[in-house]
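>> received
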Amino acid sequence: MSDPRLADPNSPPLLALRGITLAFGPKVIQHDLSLDVRRGGIFAVMGGSGCGKSTVLKAMIGLLRPRVGRFLVEGEDYWAASEERRTEIGRQRFGVLFQNAALWSAMTVGMNVALPMQMFTKLDEDAIQRLVMLKLGLVGMEHAVEQLPSELSGGMRKRAGLARALALDPDVLFFDEPSAGLDPITSSRLDELIVNLRDGLGATIVIVSHELPSLFAIADDGVFLDAQTKTVIAHGSPSALRDTCSDPQVQAFMRREHYDAGAEGKV
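>> returned
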């Protein structure tokens, strides 16, 4: 039976940022950032290069403490919790596929997937190996269990990294530029896999990307970050932003058109 909270607009958000400011030293990356990620959705963090998309992702997986604001996980203030509790939330709730897959090069694919279970569960080795094959099967990579990451194509490494992200059955899967470096066919297959994981496992997806075909194909909500004002300038699904957003910069980006900020106001 499916979770009755999936995609329910009236349920509280699974993740929420409230008035977040992210900075490195004196350099502010984003400020006054607020957003809601609903359970069962595919949420996109969009924007051009240098706008802070990956920095926002780091804040949402607990790798970067905001200078100001709150990060809520089903209403619980993440940074107000103890370090032990934050570790527990991250382990139970979050799975991450980084842009380069971040696999341990000296370990086989199976060893990479097994590692989180060995570190954070009390399962015996036989149970872990069964689960490794299950996770690899979910992403179509069970045949590669004994291979090293260096023996895999870019798309296969992404799938292996995704299997590892699934190791502890997270509520939320985070993807950092999942289509980067992939050819269009491989990228499309990865998009299908992401949707299938959402539908089959009931996972919530947060994706950081500027790849428009992927965004239009899979995302149902999101925010658009601006590098100049350093804040969110639009909310909505990629297709809605393309078709109805009144901000000329957002429309130009979503339609792959040139945008000249200096031209505004000229007669």
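>> The radius of gyration is 19 Å.
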